[in-house]
Amino acid sequence: MLASADAYQFKFQHMPRALGKPLGPALFRSQLEDFQVDEIIDFQPSAEGEHLLVHVRKRDQNTRWVAGLLAKLADIGRNDVGYCGMKDRFAVTTQWYSLHLPGRDLRVSQLQHDDFEIIASHRHHKKLRRGMHQGNQFSIVLRDFKADRALVSERLQQIEREGVPNYFAEQRFGHNGANLHEAQRLIDADQLKGNRRGTGIYLSAARSWLFNLVLAQYIEQGQLPDQTGPLWGRGRSNADIDSVQTENDVLAHWQSWCYALEHAGLKQERRNLVLKPQDLRAQWSDSDCLSLHFTLASGCFATALLRELAELFRPEFEAL
Fold first, then answer.
1. 99-103, long-range: CB within 8 Å, 24+ apart, which pairs?
2. What is the pTM of this model?
3. How many CB atoms are located within 10 Å of the residue 258 CB?
4. Nearest 10 degrees: CA dihedral of 145, 11, 242, 300?
5. How far is Cα 286 from Cα 294, in angstroms, rounded to an integer?
6. Which of the residues are catalytic?
7. 105, HSE (Cβ side, Cα atoms, 13 Å)
8. Long-range contacts of 156-160 (CB under 8 A, 24+ apart)
9. Could you say which of 3.90.550.10, 3.40.50.1360, 1.10.760.10, 3.30.2350.20 is the CATH number of the domain covering 43-132?
10. 142: phi then psi, degrees, rounded to nearest 5
């Protein structure tokens, strides 16, 4: 099933699950308030420096769009705005941005806009960059979740105890895998060269997909090992011999992708195969709605957890 790019349709929902079949169908993200994300930073603003940190709450707006608005309102270049991670658009989210304002004082009132709300602001000594945050806190509602509540409780305890596959989820790959199809086209044309060529999003998608394939192979073999998998790039892997053999076997049909990632300047890294949520809590309402609250480390996807619990449906979208 996961043999090659030509044979596979790049659909995240095809990835094998580790904990068995979903316990029932559920309506997912039918309302903005059903998916709430709060970014967690593990540092204190320095209260001085060339950057202004602004804590922003946004509804139905993506991270890059708000970054562009902040740049325009502050009259600075788009590259002078930093942030730690991408947040979903169809959601209510909070996150931090940094604005490079050397020698300038800026009133927060100058940054007011209908598309977002500024919760707080502080001076800081460095720009925010991807991955600088500690994690994200999620509050999610699954509606019309037709499942045995006792089994749901057992599955949640299993998720908390054993974790779930740490997949990169559909947001990384675009609707129906569009980012992966574009990555394939760029690889065939020898044009997957990274951010400097404007193809960074496809480079990231390709790398994430190869990781998912390795993880899926372990699950198909009945394993979910508490170890790491490859984020492909240049350099020797520090994994053990058995892991390297598994990874090489899985990616044997994807050598053009591996080659492209290596020659795009990426260094090989490792990512945990298992995702374990923190502070997982659940509460039912009388109308078959399950509210979930949990925290994930930066770079991890809530969908990877939810799909081990329910078969997720969104209005006008296919099951995930």
1. 99/51, 99/52, 99/54, 99/70, 99/71, 99/74, 100/50, 100/51, 100/76, 100/127, 101/50, 101/51, 101/52, 101/74, 101/76, 102/50, 103/50
2. 0.90
3. 19
4. -60
5. 21
6. 88
7. 1
8. 156/280, 156/282, 156/309, 158/19, 159/19, 159/277, 159/280, 159/305, 159/308, 159/309, 160/276, 160/277, 160/280
9. 3.30.2350.20
10. -100, 120
Classified by CATH at the fold level, domain 12-33+140-275 comes out as: Pseudouridine synthase (3.30.2340)
Q: Of 3, 9, 28, 7, nearest to 305 (Cα)?
A: 28
Written as six digits, the tokens of 154 are 């057992």
Count the residues in the chain: 320
Residue identified by tokens 């619990």 is: 309
pLDDT values of the chain reduced to their tens digit, one per residue, 320 residues: 344 444 445 677 789 999 999 999 999 999 999 999 999 998 999 999 999 999 999 999 999 999 999 999 999 999 999 999 989 889 999 999 999 999 999 999 999 999 999 999 999 999 999 888 999 999 999 999 999 999 999 999 999 999 999 999 988 898 888 999 999 999 999 888 766 667 888 999 999 999 999 999 999 999 999 999 999 999 888 889 999 999 999 999 999 999 999 998 889 999 999 999 999 999 999 789 999 999 999 999 999 999 999 999 987 554 45
